[in-house]
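A note from the maintainers: we've had questions about how concatenated examples are separated. There is no special marker in the raw files; a new sequence line simply starts the next protein. For clarity in this README we add a label.
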Amino acid sequence: MNALWSSFETLLGLGVEPKDLTFIQISLRGIVVFLVTLITVRLGHKRSLSRKTPFDAVLLVILAAVLSRAINGSAAFFATLGGGMVLVLLHRLFARFAYYSHRFGILVKGRPDIIVRDGECDFQMMRRNHLSIHDLEEDMRLSGHIDDLSKIRLARVERSGDISFIKK
């Protein structure tokens, strides 16, 4: 058993200074991290990759930063993988809390903002969302398939940052 573990340590370069890792060791670390991350994210939930909310983006950015350290050897390999799993579990726990608590959901995910009501722009809300009239018109054409503001009953900046349109 010790011989098997010793071979595993050598293959992954465990206990080796980052500057001394070989191409093969970094490649094998990358493969292991990829597989563990894939399994972890799949166990976490599909939504972390399907949505574009800041709540989900934060998980992906931090997870990538943490797990890259396992590949390049700048942090302990297994502890870093475990830390990545904890982040995914925390994301899932927060998502569950947000499901049951609207207030908590607003805290971690935000809320949609109405920027057009009955063809009239709410310029203060647009300014708050850093949206110009030109941005609104572009989204009207691209996703709303409409070019006349008066034909829009409601437009909102969703929690994902996308703009949704409801026609009159």
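[label: protein 2]
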Amino acid sequence: MESVELLIDTIGEALADGFKRVKLKYRPGWDLTMIEAVRSAFPEGVFHIDCNGAYTLEDLPMLRELDRFRLAMIEQPLMYDDLIDHATLQKQLRTPLCLDESITSPDRARKAIAINACGWINLKPGRVGGLTQALEIHDLCAAANVPCWVGGMLESSIGAHHCLALATLPNFHYPADIFPTERFYHEDLGQPAMALCAPSLMALPDRPGCGAEPRKDQLAHATLEQTELRHR
């Protein structure tokens, strides 16, 4: 956002519309002053911050300050490959850490859980290699009592419908990052477009399959080259 005032206005609109939590991007220069203003304006709101790996353990004094803002979690405060440093940081904080970019496979999830590097995992099917890998990570986390939530990677309606199905599993305990098509795309490559059925809610499809299919007209319009493979 261009200013804290604009951010607070936007959050107020979202909460008034019934959205159940707010994720705040958090980076050097847009940090404690911002979150202090937000928490002051919305003392009962559910917030978490996403740092996108912007910090190191040298920032520990600032990160400790975050405990007083009653955040749901601190997402990816350190670099993606710093599992050990995340475990070190988690011991210093009351607020649970959430790993996102760090979780690229079931093996990475297993290691993060084993060293108590996080209290949450943001599970993105596209990042971990698909639904089979995502299901394995879900089960690992459930067995270890580490809750998950579903993240998105700007998928088309087809990919987002897979995320939507994943989000119904029992170890997902936080509203997902699954967005209406209009949030990012003028026209989707899949159909039907993703849409809210109520504030902060999406309905699951009522037919077999993932619930979406490619839009052949849009794919043809967007295609630069194509190859046809034939079985001899």
